[in-house]
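Researcher: Next sequence.
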Amino acid sequence: MSTKLLILYAQPDDEDAFLTRYNDVHMPLARTIPGLERAVVNRVDANLISGASPYFIITELHFADKAAFDLAMASPENRAAGKDAMSFAKGKFTLLAVTPES
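Model: Next structure:
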């Protein structure tokens, strides 16, 4: 069964600076993580209940199964992506490991 890593990024202080770093540096690093099958970047438009969303971007990193996910998370490439995230978004993201139900 596939496994995904969801990264929920809070609203940044400077959207333009965040997007430049995210698109030009961070996602190219993330795309080198071994076993990554697909990366999906979702820009949050609105919270349909309250209108204001605490999230700016939700990224999905897709892996074939739990074993591939575990290997990816232990990789030097993942550590490099994590170190980069801490350099520009420390305290502004949440990591969730999820297994799709359908």
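Model: Strands lie at 3-10, 36-43, 55-63, 93-98. DSSP finds three helices and four strands in the chain.
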